[in-house]
Amino acid sequence: QVQLVESGGGLVQAGGSLRLSCAASGRTFSPYAMGWFRQAPGKEREFVADVSLSGGSTYYAYSVKGRFTISRANAKNTVYLQMNSLKPEDTAVYYCAAAGRYGNSGGGYRYDYWGQGTQVTVSS
Predict the structure, then answer these.
(1) 74-102 residues labelled b (16+ CB within 10 A) or e (exposed)
(2) Strand 78-83 and strand 68-73: pairing?
(3) Looking at residues 78-102, what average pLDDT do you find?
(4) Which of 9, 49, 68, 93 is a Cys-bridge partner for 118, taking CB atoms 3.0 to 4.6 Å apart?
(5) Do β-strands 10-13 and 118-123 pair in parallel, antiparallel, or remain unpaired?
């Protein structure tokens, strides 16, 4: 089984920055990609960004492109999401996910493993 644990969420003013981290542990696992999703109150979970196994290919939702940067450190089994110029509409629970195969989500993966989520609140 694969466990994903997010950290780094919190409360920030509009225009500020936060960096989320996600550490993967468990059985030996080399995911095709790792990604971030978010879910705001009353809304469906939506894709934010993902990064390929090598880290060479990234894909972003239009709403965050140019403001968020995803990266991964394979040696540490960790993926990061640097969020800059945050807006109140970025307020959500952010989930880390790992893809074990190709699919139709994000940059073309199927996400099978999920973390518990970390709250990000952006005040106006």
Answers:
(1) eeebbbbbebeebeeebbbbbbbbbbbee
(2) antiparallel
(3) 95
(4) 9
(5) parallel
